[in-house]
Amino acid sequence: MRSVSRDQAPPPPVFPAADVAARRCTCHPAGGDRTEMLGGLALLAGLALLHNAGAKTVHGSFDSALAWHSRGQHIVTFLFHGDQAVLCVRITNVAAAAGKDATLYLYQNEQWLKMHGSMEEYSCTEKLSLAQVLIPLNQTEYNYTLPQIVYPKAWYAIYADKYTCLMSYEDPKSDDITYEVTLLNPDAAGNPFDHFGADESGLHEFYFLLVLVYFVAACIYIQALWQTIKKGGPMHTVLKVLSIALLLQAVSALANYIHFSRYARDGKGVPFIGSFAELCDIASEVQMLYLLLSLCMGWTLSRMKKSQSKPLQWDSTPTSTGFAVVAVTAQVILLVWEQFEENEHHSFHAHLSLAGTLLIALKICLAMSLAFGLYQIISLERSTMKRQFYITFSKVCILCLNCALHCSHGFVCLHCV
């Protein structure tokens, strides 16, 4: 499970404080060739995934020094919804927590953003007083039911104690206070057992259906595909690369399903499997990009040198290879950059950071390049059969790029084949 992020934004926001009744927690948290180059680049991107993994059962320790420095230690952010959303807190060393007046402050997203928009207008104590909910950490377990939430809202949990707003930090020399925070939304029956945030709702079912689609497709086509690959031919390399890319996507879908199946039970999942799923997804995307660029650029650049009767094959001119390598390398660099900017990892991204924006711009430029290359090929082709193949290939390219761009905006969509 990932460590709780310690990137602290200045203290939070919200309305008048409300007392919280401490009750026994009833939730259930648990504890030298193209292939080598592509593999190396994908591995480089994958290394970025291993430093973090998402979970909604969060473990860590309260840090008074960090809370003082940041005017509040950020614990977790979660999108709650419904009538029975619950936040469960378990702590150790209750005596130390009570001695330093340890408190958990909850803020809604609107107030949080408003607070950050005018940070200089509020003192430390004023910021803490604006919290909508205060949870005094003077008992081992708490179970707080949030008020009815008509529309999904992000809530921020912030830790602070009596040392947080001092002018100079005084080291209390007390023992560590460890915690476990479990965040639960109501399920279909209205019971607070759903570990998925509003932004993650439906992921488990989606990956189940996706795995089912891959399984059925494999049962239907795998034998014919294997026989075609064994025969060889001018498109042999292309078929192998496409098959590997599809296999990587299927493995990614299966790994995500396993991760979310566990996540649905304990809010933690299997972080390593989740990271492995995204690594497979990135490797598949990089491999598909390299293939499309090599095919389109190769066909375009060597078109005039080919005999009209010569069948299609994967051209490998220095120009096309260089262009593809540069584009793929740029994409991998942006993917790695984006991974280190995000706190949670999954096979879909909001791409709201600078790296994400540049990644979208790169994909748009590549889409225009592919469209131009394919247009030239189709306009010059005399063979009706080949022209039809190019048109079909263009549709597949557009589908792949549309899938990539929709996923870039955080929508969960079917992986392109």
From TrEMBL:
It is a multi-pass membrane protein. Residues 57-166 form the GPR180-like N-terminal domain. The chain crosses the membrane at residues 206-226, 238-258, 282-301, 322-340, 352-378. Signal peptide: none annotated. It is found in: Membrane. Pfam families: GP180_GOLD (PF21870), GPR180-TMEM145_TM (PF10192). InterPro entries: GPR180-like_N (IPR053880), GPR180/TMEM145 (IPR047831), GPR180/TMEM145_TM (IPR019336). Keywords: Glycoprotein, Membrane, Transmembrane, Transmembrane helix. This is Integral membrane GPR180. The lineage of its organism: Eukaryota, Metazoa, Chordata, Craniata, Vertebrata.
